[in-house]
Design a protein that fits this description.
There is one protein chain. By secondary structure, this protein is an alpha+beta fold. Strands 1-2-6-5-4-3 form a six-stranded antiparallel beta sheet. The chain contains two helices and six strands, in the order ββαββββα.
Amino acid sequence: GRAPPPPPHPQAAHLAYADGEGADATRGTGVAGQWPTAAEAEAAADDLVAAAGTPTEERDVVVAGEVAGRDAVTDAGDGRATVTWRNDTAVLQATGPADVVADVYAAFPL
């Protein structure tokens, strides 16, 4: 799989997760950050989405009936995917098995 790009802002962090040890463990990576303004967060999210490849799905993130950001899913075509989502100044990205990143997104919808 592809490694995520370096964090686009000092306040962003790389994350790694695994459900166990050894070759059979399910592994993924992530980027999480908070930017000072919505415009900076949007630019950072756009950079992360572009680095992941062409999105196969994009949607508005709606909070209390108002559009607060966007999400994008990029399918790597090998069972892995990257989902990137933004809500105002927060940006998250998860890369790993497609079903796992879908679960991460569902657990942390912002």
